[in-house]
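yo, DUF2357 domain-containing protein is done. seq:
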Amino acid sequence: MEVPINGEDGYWLVGEDLITYEGRLYLFEWAEYWVVGERPFIVKAGGEEVVSRKIKENAYVAQFSFRNYVGRARVEVIEEKGRKIFRDVEVLSRKILQIYGIKKDEEDIKAIIEVHRRFYETIVNDIIKISSLLPFSVRAPTGFGVVESGEPMSELFAYHYLRSNKERILEAFETMLRHIKRKLVVEEDWLGLEDVSEVTSETFFSIVQYPEHLVSVGEGVLLSEYLRGHVPMRVLSFRKYESVDTPENRFVKYFLNLLVEWSERVIGVFGDRAEVNAIEELLREFEFIRSNGVWEEIGEMKFFPYTSQALLKGVGYRDLLELYREFTAYSPFFEELQGAIDNKDIAKLYEYWAFFRLVEELGEILGSKELKIVITPGGELPESGDVYAEFDNGWRLYYNKELVPKRWSYSVTMRPDFSLFDGDPDRAGTRLIGVFDAKFKLDVVDEPKEMESFDEEVEALEREWNYWTWAKLEDIYKMHTYRDALGCRFAVVVYPGDVSVFFKTRGRKLTDFDLATLILLDDFEGVGYLKLRPEVVENDGFG
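structure:
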């Protein structure tokens, strides 16, 4: 099958596994595709760039595939002069049917699309549901040198921020209003004599220079004796009064409106998927604060008052500034999660889901009474800061933490999906217990007979390299690399399969182990796979 990349640009997308269904173009992971064109080009797809090769006069071709990626994607063609054309597609996996044991033909595109849809909806709802039950602590950046986004990355971040900081926010606003800052305003104006509190040289000059303001009066007025029976109705003088329209108060008004806006957005997005009673109550509190007449006297913020000492040090103000910086600090954790939701990136969503699910299960094992998820913003865009869950016994599970040489790795920097420490890794004496990698794939050890075939597959891979065998063995090799380089007790792949298998260092192989066994038994040393699967559909097919 072949379809045009975009209109009549002369580029075609070719492959056996091209499906058009209800107006959308579907491709499959690991399948091979080609872009064919009349001129030299580069194709960007599946995380790689492929330079076209000439096959005959006015005919060029480039081959690509999507490896271990499921979700929305773009096939982009870049010509030699820089012109770009593209075609948006959605990448599917036929193995989604195997995950849930659905007895459908792998060529049944409607069934595959339906299970993908259900899986996506379930995993997103699970992420929202599980994370909504976990307490979050978003740390403020240490200074204004960090990247600030101007607004939070997503409604999910705003949900956790508002839910976790409700009391802090309300207390800060109440304190600020009790100690609201005012400034003395001095304005030159035409004033009646009864309003003049200070006489200056400008006052005398205004009497002489503007005789039209003089009126004739009778006897008995002292001032008229010096002005030939006249007194001024108005004179130039200075009006002095206190105003709350200050830069720091404009900031507070802006922040209050921002919180109202995001509270409404959170309720609109999560009203039927998460507990939002606390957010609704907080929104009512915000509306009550906003009903205070003082805000009518305060203008709109036109610039951020970074240098305001009242904002940096004032009672209530400094707390609101800290809260604002937490609210708008760059947080890749939530930005990437929102991107995965928007792009239907199933592998990335599974990674987030696995993190929250592991936190939930580890909380049951290690204690969850004081459990919290801490998020510290990164200093620059490429940095992700720290994201970790801390359990009652002091252990921490980190998300995507860099494990640097000398401190953790004896070779190069490594970044497992999740790293489990027995304390704060910045403190001496803390041990790395184990690491996890989340893989949305089935090409591992789904069947007992496959557990016996690793040696055979290694030999097969040496004889003839292919994507399928490499994908299966790649994970177990990587776990050995992690464990050897990091010196941790275990390295485990979590995946949406049916079988858990663990290869102990002394050559013993165990099946159907669970997370509690892995964590609580100190002699559980080695590598393996741990089943961790979202429950989406019934095994007997569609209802």
